[in-house]
Each structure stands twice: as structure tokens, then as C-alpha cells.
């Protein structure tokens, strides 16, 4: 993608915008938080922050696969809910159950992603509607399974990933398991998107489906895989969020739009063709940092909504403006 | 619209009648279920009117949403706008019949402003409509809940006639919805703007080359969409006797209005579909609700079925389409 | 854009200043009344709180007397939270105890006023109801629908949230929101020295029964000289609750956490645990997970309740009405006990689901505990 803009003669003046502005935003926000609340600069401060943002960050990086391929995945929040409810139903307080429950949940996630992909690719249902239907269905399934209220606890082995910290580490003093998960899955998702043939095909499909097909890209398979990746990361995000917060019947609601917001703040282009995993993770960090900052400023929920709305529109408008200026 | 006449006559007819087929099957299912369950007391004219009257708010909103989707856009801000309109209606009226007209005008102005803003952000700033209207939705909701956190103001008895008044057994509001649908149909079918809507939705670049001011058409469609949502808010205030900042969101009118529009056969990619399909979609939704109530379906099972029905209905149209979908 | 937002904001401010007339959630008379009712003696059998009532005013229902089998219709605001799930189970189990009820028709509005009005219309048009029970989604909005049902000659029973008409036979509810707030606040005031810091965690603004809980407590903290660190809204979200408490902990100490509902109480407790800080006074509600956490960690807890047994009472009121018996009216006020340290153990049952509400008054029912998701 970026190769096209390389030969531009006026590269010197254009170099600045090419640093994704989301990184600047994150740094600025974090500095602002530290100024307002110096405790944030200590390990417990920023590690708690990272721990909190892990679920959204992993989720957005996965949802980005679908966005880059030119679709939407509104079902991810409901997959998180299903993961948490399903795990609590199956676990029945047995700490050893975690070892088979997480793989089972990943299996269920893969099937859901597959169904999403098949419905979009072969039944030609627009992804917005297909995954909206899936969202409604899965929320209903989670309710049916549990009877409307949580019926069990998550064992500590399950909550390990989202809740526990490794303590007594030099320099950073503590390291939440969730942060390790964030790094590991972040790297895997980055590698898949930016270093593999699959990632290149994903971009090609999102950029221009017809052209990709003519170039021999197995369009259906690529799109279906994107939905599967997205669903799998939603399961992982569910495991981490459930670990952090415990069981509730609407735990994942709203995450689908937050994931899209994070990707958009990270410069991803809706309807496909563009997007970066690190920038999306930075987008998730930025989103959470904004909320933290607004809380510190003592601004109430309504103001948060307005700010979130303005940032969404602003980020996309800014990206469009940049792209136009770069002559694309 | 631009290319359907070129395709085979059989497919053309199918697309045209698909929403009718869905509607007829839903009605047939409803009647069959009532007979099987021996609940024939539900087969009365009163009950038919009750079913049609279930979804007036959704119907009015969906008429507007049809315009947005026909121009290949979408509007996620309708739910917040409905809340805002209902609150403004009841706060401005505040029980005073003399304030009815000013309140309605204020709400319509609000709707027009929101629609204009949506349209401008989408066309001039070139922000993806999903994001633009989602952002707008958050902004409206934020401003609204900054000032109000409960039912505020109240609607005078005279105004409750809009929601509760009837001619014989037919509520005014039901007639109003059909009149509004008729107007929308007329505009789409016979006006210049209507044909521009289809051209822009079908192929924006071609429409621009044909000399259509595409931006204006998109903005116009969004203004209509927001005006309809504003009217839906006025209706809801009249029905609930007051407005609260959550009533739009609790009715999920944003996603439901999109769902009924696509169930009614309007293509999400724009350019094909129409008002009567949307009305069929609304009636199908009401029927499904009633079927669930008659059959005593558990609320959670209901949700599962609803999700599947939405996807299945859209697949029913889309599966034979040869176009790539987003 | 900016201009529009500004205009909208200015418009909002103007209308807000001129017309805003929020319902009164800080009513000293109601506060005093509920405070007295908390300790009042109730009429009725001592071991069956769902049959008890305050006051002596009764309604004569002879005109509604009807031969069975009856069709009992129930328009429900929703079963969209665990409290309502437990309550609805109470209700369906109560229905099974009355063979005269031939049909129990339940319609679920899924949390929407608009839908609930339509549901009641449906029931009136074709439901063939002998009696209509309504659990309104919101008070003002459902009033016309309830009036319509009364006008159709049906006996109507309202419970949980009320309506602004007295046409129903009775309105079944526990003492109320102020009472809940008072019980939690009294416990905090008794256990935190003056000048102590209290964090108030609330679910969301605007809901009558929750607003009164907060306003009752707020006034008492002020009187007792406690400092309220802040009032935060959690949306009933565990993750958000945990984040909020973590943020406050980072900025200083917390001597007590007051909560307007208990579903997220365990998340608040965990925030202290995870930071390695001693758990201070944390109030909750009668959910099993909170009660067990309270016992296991031994912090100073209290569980005010908003008893789910009122769902049983609604059916009992309907049955009594159709039998033509006397019913407490216009309100059937139920007792609203708080679970304190000394009775904690008798409410804990580890076989029940985490968000089972212990004050369900359902232990004497035949299908307890399986119907509520418990194991033998």
C-alpha cells in the first residue's frame, strides 16, 4: 500500500504525517494523565491501565482482520458474553475444567466465525446484517443457556489470565498475566496481518474484491478466515475480561462498537484495504486513556459520550483529509 | 434500479414480490398457529389493529431509514434522536396545550439540523456514514443525558390524541403512518428527487456524471431520515405521555429500523428497494412479536429466533445476487 | 459541527433551565415514612414475609369474584436482569400452587415502554384475561395502558414500580428505595468514624427506586459528617466497577463503599483484594456471591434487600381478588429486611447460583432449589 506513495518527490514535507497520529495521541494522553495523577507513572498505575485495556486491545486487533477484508463484525461482543457465560456454566467450580473449557470455547468461536463467513460469502448477506443477526442470536443463546442469570462461578484457574499479577519483579515490580497475553497475541496478530501471504491477500480483498479475484486470490476463503480470526480473538478477549471482572450476563455488550472505534482511531479504513495491528492496539489504548482522563477531570458519563463521538468523526475525517492530501 | 431491467424477467419479478411473499408467509404462519393452538379469539379485527399498531414508532423511523439506505448510506443516530425529540416535545409542551405547535416545530427543526449535520459530515468530510452517524448518536445522547436523566416535562392531554385517538377502532397514529408511507412512496416514485435517490444509491459516480448533484441528494435523504426519527420521537412522547433520554435506545430503533428496511428488500448497498417493502418488514416484525406472544415463547428463545429470522430473510433476497457484498 | 453542538447545548441549557421539572427524589416526608416502616410491625404470619403487610386499609374485591379456571395475564417489563429472573421464577412457582389458575399468560416487553403498552393492548384485545398483573417498565409511561385495562373492567394488580393512578386493586411493593439507602448508610455511619471517606457506586441515573436509595444515603452521610468521595455510575458492569474503585484507590484511601445495588459488589471487593488493600466496609445486596465473599473475607458488610418475594405476592393478590377476598389496598407494603452479620449464615446457600437473591421467600416452595438453578 505505502509503496505507491514512496516515489513522491516532496517526501521531505510529507514524512511527518506518515507517523500514524494515533501514536502521538496515545503519548500525549498518557503524559496528560501522569501530570494530573502522578501515581499513574508508578508500576501499579500503568500496569493496571494496561491490564484493563487488554481485552479491548486484543479484540480490536482481531476485529481489524474483518475490517481490512472489507466487512464488519458486530458479533464479537456477544461471543465474549457467550464465552464467559458458557465457561461459568461448564466449569461447575472445578479448577481443572479450565484446561478443556478454553479450547472448547475457542472451538465454538471458530464455528461461529465460520458461520459468519459462510453467510456473508455464500448467502451474500451483508456482513453488517449477518453479524447483527449473529449478535442477537448469541446473546439469546447465552441467556437461554444460563436462564437469564449467571449459574456458576469461573474457577481461579480461568480467572488467572485476566486477574493475576506476577509480583516481586525488579524495575516494574509487578506484571499482570493479562499484559503478557496482550504482548503475545498482539505479536501473533501483527505477524498474521503484516508478515504473511494471508495478510497481503486480506488487504487485496478489502481493497478491491473483483481485482483480487482476478489476481487469483481465493476471496471467499480469505474472508471466511478473517471472520474466524475475529471470533477467536473475541473468545480470548472474553476469557481475559471474564477473568478480570467475573461473570455477568451482558459482559460483552458494547464491545463490538468499541472495537470498531479503536480500529478507526488507529487509522483503519472502513470497507477495507487498510489497517495496522499496532496502530489498532494503540487506538484501544487511546480510547481507554481518554476515558481515564475524563474521569480524572471529573467529567460525567454524558461528556464522555460527546467526546467519544467527536473523536470518532474527527479521526475518520482527519484520515480522509490526509489521504486526499497524499493524492490517493 | 439502474440495472435490474437488464436482468432476466424472472429474477426481476422475484425481487419485486419477495417482500410480499415474506409478508404472506408470516400472516399464514400466524393464522395457522392460532388455529393449531385453538386461540381463535386472536382472530378479530381489534387484534389485527392491535398488531398493526404495535410498531408505529419503528414504522415511522424505518420509512426515513429507507431513504438513507437507498442512497447507500445508513443512519445509526435515529435512536438517540428519537429520545431527544421525545424529551424536547414533552419539555417544551410541559402540559400546556398552547405549546403544542411550537414544540412540534422545535423538534422538526432539531431533526432537520441533525439530518443536515449527518449529511454534511458524510458528503463534505467524507466520513463513512456508519461512523458519522454513530458519532452523531453519541453526541446527541451525551448532550441529552447531560441535561436530563429521567422523564422530563409532560404532554398535554390534547396531544395524547395523536397516540391514543381513534376513528372507530383505527388509531390516528396508524393512519398517520400509512399516510406518511404514501407520501414517501409518492416522492420516491414520481419526483425528481426520488429518481435521483435511486441513481445515487445505484452508482454514485455514474449519477454524478449524469449531472446529479449527488451530495445534495445524500444530504436530502439524511434530512428526511432524521425528520422521520423526530416525528417518531413526537409520537413516542405522545404515547408515553413524556420523554426520557433512554426511550430510543431501549427500543433499539437504530438496529431494528435497519433490520426491517433490509427485510423489506431494500439493498444495504443502495439503489434498490422501496417503501412498501419496508412497511411489509415492519408488519412482519409486529407479526413475529404477536406470534411469540400467542405461542408464549420464552423471551430468550424469542431473541435467538429473531436473530436467525433477520439473517434468513435477508439471505432470501441476497443469495441469488451476483454482486460482492461488504 | 462545532456550531451545531454549541447550538444544541445552548438550546438544551435554555430548555433545561426553564422547564426542567425532575421528579422529586428527595422527599423528607417519604424518607421519614420509610424509615419508620423499616422497623414497624407488619400484619400477617411471621414466617411468611410475602404475606405480610403494613397498615390496615383493605379493598373489598367481591365484585371481581369469579369461578375458576382463571386466565391470569401478566405483562412483564422484562426478565433482563438476575433480580427479575429470580422474581419471575418465584412467580411461576407460585402459579403452580393455585390449581384454580387455568392459564398463565406471560408477555415480556424486553425492557421497552413502547412494547409493553402494545403488549397490554394485545392482552386486552385477545387475551381473555380474568385478571391483569403489570410490572411496569416505567411509572408514567404505563399509566394510560393500566387505566385502559381498568376501564375495560379488569381487576389490575401492579407491583415493583408503580403507576400514577389508583385504579388498580392494589400496588404490591416493599418499603422502598429510601429504606434501602437508609439501611446501607446506617451501617456505614456506625462503622466509619466521622470524617471518613465514602465512595458511592450507583448503577445508572434516573431510575426512581435507585435515585431514592442514593438520596436517602447522601443526606445521612452529610448529617453524620462523612466525606463522599464521589458518586460514580457503573452501568452494572463488573469491569467498570473494578476500574472505578482502582482509580479511587490510586488517589487515596477509601473507608467505605456504598452501593445502590449488589450485582457488582463482588467486583468492588475484588478491586481491594487485587491491590492488596484491606477490604473496608462494603455494602451490597442479598446476592449469594456477595454474601459468601463477605463471610469468607470477614469485612464489615451489610445486605439491604429489595425482596424478590413480591413477585409471589402479586400472584397471591390476584388470586385473592378473584376469590373476592380482602386485599391490602391501595398499597400492599411488604417488609424489607436487611441481612446483617448475625443472620448472615442462615441466608448463605452455596448450592445456589452466584446471583441468586437470598431474600426470595422461596425456600418453602416444592421446586426449591432446582427451579432457581440450585443443586440439591
UniProtKB/TrEMBL annotation, chain A:
GO terms for cellular component: plasma membrane. It is a multi-pass membrane protein. GO terms for molecular function: transmembrane transporter activity. Its main location: membrane. Keywords: Cell inner membrane, Cell membrane, Membrane, Transmembrane, Transmembrane helix, Transport. Part of the ABC transporter complex LsrABCD involved in autoinducer 2 (AI-2) import. Probably responsible for the translocation of the substrate across the membrane. The complex is composed of two ATP-binding proteins (LsrA), two transmembrane proteins (LsrC and LsrD) and a solute-binding protein (LsrB). This is Autoinducer 2 import system permease protein LsrD. It comes from Devosia riboflavina. The lineage of its organism: Bacteria, Pseudomonadati, Pseudomonadota, Alphaproteobacteria, Hyphomicrobiales.
Automatic annotation (TrEMBL), chain B:
GO terms for molecular function: transmembrane transporter activity. Pfam families: BPD_transp_2. Keywords: Cell membrane, Membrane, Transmembrane, Transmembrane helix. One of its GO terms (cellular component) is plasma membrane. It is found in: Cell membrane. Coiled coil: none annotated. InterPro entries: ABC_transp_permease (IPR001851). CDD domains: TM_PBP1_transp_AraH_like (cd06579). This is ABC transporter permease. It comes from Devosia riboflavina. The lineage of its organism: Bacteria, Pseudomonadati, Pseudomonadota, Alphaproteobacteria, Hyphomicrobiales.
Amino acid at each position: 500500500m505505502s509503496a505507491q506513495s514512496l516515489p513522491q518527490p516532496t517526501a521531505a514535507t510529507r514524512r511527518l504525517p506518515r507517523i500514524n497520529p494515533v501514536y502521538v495521541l496515545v503519548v500525549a494522553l498518557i503524559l496528560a494523565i501522569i501530570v494530573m495523577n502522578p501515581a499513574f507513572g508508578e508500576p501499579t498505575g500503568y500496569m493496571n491501565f494496561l491490564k484493563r485495556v487488554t481485552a479491548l486491545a486484543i479484540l480490536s486487533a482481531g476485529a481489524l482482520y474483518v475490517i481490512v477484508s472489507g466487512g464488519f463484525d458486530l458479533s464479537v461482543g456477544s461471543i465474549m458474553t457467550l464465552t464467559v457465560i458458557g465457561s461459568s456454566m461448564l466449569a461447575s467450580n472445578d479448577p481443572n475444567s479450565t484446561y478443556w473449557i478454553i479450547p472448547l470455547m475457542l472451538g465454538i468461536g471458530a464455528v461461529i466465525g465460520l458461520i459468519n463467513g459462510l453467510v456473508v460469502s455464500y448467502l451474500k448477506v451483508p456482513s453488517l446484517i449477518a453479524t447483527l443477526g449473529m449478535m442477537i442470536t448469541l446473546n439469546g443463546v447465552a441467556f437461554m443457556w444460563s436462564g437469564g442469570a449467571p449459574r456458576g462461578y469461573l474457577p481461579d484457574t480461568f480467572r488467572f489470565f485476566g486477574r493475576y499479577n506476577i509480583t516481586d519483579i525488579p524495575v516494574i515490580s509487578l506484571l499482570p498475566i493479562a499484559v503478557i497475553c496482550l504482548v503475545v497475541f498482539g505479536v501473533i496478530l501483527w505477524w498474521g496481518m503484516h508478515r504473511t501471504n494471508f495478510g497481503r491477500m486480506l488487504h487485496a480483498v478489502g481493497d478491491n474484491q473483483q481485482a483480487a479475484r482476478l489476481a487469483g486470490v481465493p476471496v471467499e476463503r480469505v474472508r471466511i478466515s478473517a471472520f474466524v480470526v475475529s471470533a477467536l480473538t473475541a473468545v480470548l478477549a472474553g476469557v481475559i475480561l471474564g477473568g478480570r471482572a467475573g461473570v455477568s450476563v451482558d459482559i460483552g455488550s458494547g464491545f463490538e462498537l468499541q472495537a470498531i472505534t479503536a480500529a478507526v482511531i488507529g487509522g483503519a479504513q472502513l470497507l477495507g484495504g487498510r489497517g495496522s495491528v499496532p496502530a489498532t492496539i494503540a487506538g484501544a489504548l487511546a480510547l481507554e486513556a481518554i476515558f481515564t482522563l475524563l474521569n480524572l477531570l471529573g467529567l460525567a458519563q454524558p461528556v464522555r459520550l460527546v467526546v467519544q463521538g467527536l473523536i470518532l468523526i474527527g479521526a475518520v475525517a482527519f484520515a480522509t483529509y490526509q489521504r486526499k492530501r497524499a493524492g490517493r | 434500479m439502474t440495472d435490474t431491467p437488464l436482468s432476466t424477467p424472472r429474477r426481476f419479478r422475484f425481487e419485486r414480490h419477495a417482500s410480499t411473499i415474506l409478508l404472506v408467509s408470516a400472516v399464514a404462519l400466524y393464522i395457522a398457529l392460532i388455529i393449531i393452538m385453538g386461540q381463535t379469539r386472536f382472530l378479530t379485527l381489534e387484534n389485527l389493529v392491535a398488531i398493526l399498531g404495535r410498531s408505529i414508532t419503528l414504522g415511522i423511523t424505518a420509512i426515513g431509514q429507507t431513504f438513507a439506505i437507498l442512497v447507500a448510506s445508513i443512519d445509526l443516530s435515529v435512536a438517540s434522536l428519537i429520545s431527544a425529540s421525545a424529551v424536547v416535545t414533552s419539555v417544551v409542551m410541559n402540559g400546556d396545550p398552547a405549546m403544542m405547535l411550537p414544540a412540534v416545530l422545535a423538534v422538526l427543526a432539531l431533526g432537520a439540523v441533525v439530518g443536515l449535520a449527518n449529511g454534511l459530515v458524510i458528503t463534505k468530510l467524507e466520513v463513512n456514514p456508519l461512523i458519522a452517524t454513530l458519532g452523531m448518536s453519541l453526541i446527541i445522547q451525551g448532550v441529552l443525558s447531560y441535561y436530563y436523566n429521567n422523564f422530563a416535562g409532560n404532554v398535554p392531554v390534547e396531544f395524547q390524541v395523536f397516540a391514543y385517538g381513534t376513528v372507530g377502532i383505527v388509531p390516528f397514529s396508524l393512519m398517520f403512518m400509512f399516510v406518511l408511507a404514501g407520501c414517501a412512496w409518492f416522492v420516491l416514485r414520481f419526483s425528481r428527487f426520488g429518481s435521483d435517490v435511486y441513481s445515487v444509491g445505484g452508482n454514485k459516480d455514474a449519477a454524478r456524471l449524469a449531472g446529479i448533484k449527488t451530495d445534495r441528494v445524500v444530504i436530502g435523504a439524511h434530512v428526511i431520515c432524521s425528520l422521520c426519527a423526530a416525528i417518531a420521537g413526537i409520537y413516542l412522547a405522545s404515547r408515553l405521555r413524556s420523554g426520557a433520554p433512554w426511550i430510543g435506545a431501549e427500543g433499539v430503533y437504530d438496529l431494528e429500523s435497519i433490520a426491517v428496511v433490509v427485510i423489506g428488500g431494500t439493498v444495504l448497498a443502495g439503489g434498490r428497494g422501496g417503501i412498501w417493502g419496508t412497511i411489509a418488514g415492519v408488519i412482519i416484525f409486529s407479526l413475529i412479536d404477536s406470534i411469540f406472544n400467542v405461542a408464549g415463547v420464552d423471551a430468550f428463545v424469542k431473541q435467538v429466533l429473531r436473530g436467525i429470522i433477520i439473517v434468513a430473510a435477508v439471505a432470501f433476497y441476497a443469495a441469488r445476487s451476483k454482486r460482492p457484498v461488504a | 459541527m462545532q456550531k451545531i453542538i454549541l447550538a444544541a447545548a445552548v438550546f438544551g441549557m435554555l430548555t433545561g433551565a426553564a422547564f426542567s421539572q425532575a421528579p422529586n427524589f428527595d422527599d423528607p416526608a417519604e424518607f421519614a415514612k420509610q424509615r419508620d416502616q423499616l422497623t414497624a410491625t407488619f400484619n400477617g404470619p411471621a414466617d411468611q414475609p410475602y404475606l405480610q403487610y403494613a397498615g390496615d386499609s383493605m379493598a373489598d374485591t367481591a365484585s371481581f369474584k369469579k369461578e375458576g379456571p382463571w386466565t391470569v395475564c401478566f405483562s412483564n417489563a422484562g426478565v433482563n436482569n438476575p433480580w427479575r429472573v429470580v422474581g419471575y421464577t418465584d412467580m411461576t412457582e407460585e402459579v403452580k400452587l393455585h390449581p384454580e389458575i387455568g392459564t398463565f399468560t406471560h408477555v415480556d416487553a424486553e425492557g421497552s415502554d413502547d412494547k409493553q403498552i402494545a403488549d397490554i393492548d394485545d392482552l386486552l384485545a385477545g387475551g381473555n384475561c380474568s385478571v391483569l398483573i403489570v410490572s411496569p417498565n416505567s411509572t408514567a409511561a404505563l399509566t394510560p395502558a393500566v387505566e385502559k385495562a381498568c376501564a375495560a373492567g379488569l381487576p389490575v394488580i401492579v407491583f415493583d414500580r408503580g403507576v400514577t393512578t389508583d385504579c388498580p386493586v392494589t400496588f404490591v411493593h416493599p418499603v422502598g428505595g429510601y429504606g434501602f439507602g437508609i439501611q446501607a448508610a446506617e451501617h456505614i455511619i456506625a462503622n466509619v468514624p466521622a470524617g471518613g471517606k465514602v465512595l458511592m457506586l450507583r448503577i445508572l441515573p434516573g431510575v426512581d427506586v435507585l435515585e431514592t436509595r442514593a438520596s436517602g444515603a447522601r443526606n445521612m452521610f452529610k448529617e453524620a459528617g462523612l466525606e463522599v468521595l464521589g458518586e460514580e455510575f457503573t452501568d452494572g458492569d463488573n469491569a467498570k466497577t473494578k476500574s472505578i474503585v482502582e482509580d479511587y484507590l490510586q488517589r487515596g484511601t477509601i473507608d467505605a463503599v456504598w452501593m445502590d445495588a449488589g450485582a457488582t459488589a463482588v467486583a468492588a471487593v475484588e478491586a481491594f483484594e487485587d491491590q492488596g488493600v484491606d477490604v473496608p466496609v462494603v455494602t451490597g445486596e442479598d446476592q449469594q456471591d456477595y454474601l459468601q465473599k463477605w463471610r469468607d473475607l470477614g469485612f464489615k458488610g451489610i445486605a439491604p434487600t429489595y425482596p424478590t418475594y413480591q413477585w409471589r405476592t402479586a400472584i397471591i393478590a390476584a388470586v385473592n381478588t378473584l376469590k373476592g377476598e380482602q386485599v391490602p389496598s391501595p398499597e400492599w407494603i411488604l417488609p424489607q429486611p436487611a441481612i446483617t452479620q448475625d443472620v448472615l449464615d442462615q441466608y448463605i446457600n452455596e448450592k445456589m447460583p452466584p446471583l441468586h437473591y437470598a431474600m426470595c421467600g422461596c425456600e418453602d416452595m416444592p421446586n426449591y432449589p432446582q427451579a432457581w438453578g440450585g443443586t440439591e
